[in-house]
Specification:
Oligomer: single chain
Number of helices: 10
Strand content: under 5%
Number of domains: 2
CATH architecture of the largest domain: Up-down Bundle
CATH topology of the largest domain: Four Helix Bundle (Hemerythrin (Met), subunit A)
Radius of gyration: 18 Å
Order of helices and strands: HHHHEEHHHHHH
């Protein structure tokens, strides 16, 4: 990371096109929390955030309310907004939700996927393999999973997955930082893509289930002594 503040650095990585000011601010703060640039229980001063992101306090306030609804920040009387502390219960809940929701999305997506959609997924994987900055990896990972589930055109399911995935990614980042791990290879994603191309629904579901379980088991085992319940 450069010598910039975490929020300014992350803001430079997020495209401004087609998003409102509150959406942009929410995206920056969300990424800062997910990647650990903002730590648990850290106070979120609206005036400071507004200055760093070159905006007013109104979109910052709207963004914080949105993130409060997603469980990433919380409002404390007489103290204002703060980053929600990580917890073992939240981590387990999010991983369990992903284990239920994402194989379901795969089951509906494989039969409907087109060669063009799968070519787009492959391009994301190719670009993902080049990513060295952990601050970028969560965005690429979410983009990849979103592209895999897009053929199903199940927007409510996609929204639930995105929320669970975003919070779960927070714990994946903490896990990677504590064990000094690099960004994972894309072999498992490529295997899932191959099952999509073969229209093998059961293989794709099984591969996604294994992929999610391995990630959650590793993170849970490593982090179980680092958080409160």
């Amino acid at each position: 990371m450069s010598n910039q503040s975490p929020l300014k650095y992350i803001a430079g990585l997020i495209p401004l096109a087609r998003v409102s000011a509150p959406q942009f601010v929410a995206a920056v703060i969300r990424e800062a929390i997910v990647t650990g640039a903002l730590s648990g229980s850290e106070p979120l001063r609206q005036d400071l955030i507004a200055t760093e992101l070159n905006t007013s306090k109104v979109p910052v306030r709207e963004a914080l309310r949105e993130l409060e609804g997603q469980g990433l920040v919380q409002f404390m009387p007489n103290r204002g907004f703060m980053v929600t502390p990580p917890s073992l219960n939240e981590m387990n809940e999010c991983f369990e939700l992903r284990a239920v929701l994402e194989p379901l999305a795969v089951r509906h997506s494989v039969p409907l996927s087109t060669p063009e959609q799968l070519d787009a997924v492959e391009r994301i994987i190719d670009e993902f393999e080049k990513v060295q900055d952990p601050l970028l990896s969560s965005q690429w990972n979410l983009s990849l999973h979103t592209a895999l589930y897009a053929p199903a055109q199940m927007k409510h399911l996609e929204n639930m997955i995105t929320r669970a995935h975003t919070i779960a990614q927070r714990y994946t980042h903490i896990y990677m930082q504590l064990r000094s791990a690099g960004i994972d290879s894309q072999d498992e994603h490529r295997a899932i893509l191959a099952a999509y191309r073969a229209k093998d629904v059961e293989a794709a579901v099984a591969l996604m289930t294994t992929h999610l379980k391995q990630a959650s088991d590793e993170a849970a085992e490593y982090l179980k002594d680092h958080f409160e319940v």
